[in-house]
Amino acid sequence: MNLARLDLNLVVALRALLEERNVTRAGHRVGLSQPAMSAALSRLRRHFDDDLLARVGGHYELTALGQVLLDRTSTAYDVLERLFASQATFDPTQEDREFTLVASDYAVSVFGTALARHLHEEAPGIRLRFTQTPTTVVEDTATLLSTVDGLLMPHGVINDFPATDLYDDRWVFLVADDHPDVGDRLTLQDLADLPWVTYQRTYDAPAVRQLGMLGVEPHVEVSVDSFQLLPLLVAGTRRIALVQARLARLLAPIAPVRVMEPPYEAVSLQEALWWHPVHTHDAAHIWLRETAARVGAGLPRSQDGPPLNGVK
């Protein structure tokens, strides 16, 4: 494919046509007349050797290829938009811009709130938008990173993309205050026998992979897409949950649970900001990454702070 021979304006037209499924509406959306948009559709049909839009009764529907292109075109459009929005210089006190970060509710609670406070003081024109980490992040990391400004995620889940370290954390367990089977300490047998409540896909977490190496396969009874719901799903049950120590401190008042140390030397957690290489030399992204690293370095160490239910 010779990209030099392609008209990138066709990406804009293609996205509008596929999403609107109507030539006139697509033209209004991108500021083209109906004849001009019809001409663009003809060029796209010749390029793909496919109708893309097929008339069914009184309306148009996407062909099989058109359906495939729908998501790809949206991603390509976002990449091009971010590429051509790149800047050689960036003054955070003067800019009016939004950054989108993909993050779990854990990362937003522990780090995102601190970053937002910092930006409120240093760069009042900068806006942050946090979106939930999708379950497909491991399988389609490149596509995800190409459409956002960064991803907050610990090391050990994804790789092969640039990242800057933010802060450290450690893993602890939650059990109900009145758990009938757990005494002062957890055992590996407890972890194997008791039902679990987990965040999304347990097997992506290095801490859970470590358990597999110890011969413990969690019996997952409940899975949820929010770390902050874990205490509520543990309280009053026989379930246990693995959670970050920093978040456990924040969640202490939410539910009657105990925070307990792992019965083994758990792997540490190093949270990082990951980004797509297309952003590496962009001045705005450099500022964002440097600011994030500075805020992360300013957080207390994970072992500092008040005791976790009496466990330091």
Helix and strand content put the structural class at alpha/beta
Estimated radius of gyration: 24 Å
Percentage of residues in helical conformation: 25-40%
**Would you identify the regions where 5 or more consecutive residues have pLDDT less than 50?**
none
Output mean pLDDT.
88
Describe what this molecule looks like in 3D.
By secondary structure, the chain is α/β, with parallel strands linked by helices. It has eleven helices and twelve strands. The strands form four sheets. The protein has a five-stranded mixed β-sheet. Strand 3 (97-103), helix 5 (105-122) and strand 4 (126-132) form a beta-alpha-beta unit. Helix 1 (9-20) crosses helix 3 (34-48), helix 1 (9-20) crosses helix 4 and helix 5 (105-122) packs across helix 11. It is globular and about 75 Å long.
Name the descriptors:
alpha/beta; three-stranded antiparallel sheet; 39% helix; globular
Summarize the structure.
The protein has 312 residues and is of the alpha/beta class. It has helices spanning 9-20, 23-30, 34-48, 64-84, 105-122, 141-146, 188-193, 206-213, 230-234, 245-251, 283-297, and strands at residues 53-56, 59-62, 97-103, 126-132, 150-154, 163-169, 171-176, 195-199, 219-224, 240-244, 257-260, 269-274. Strand 3, helix 5 and strand 4 form a beta-alpha-beta unit.
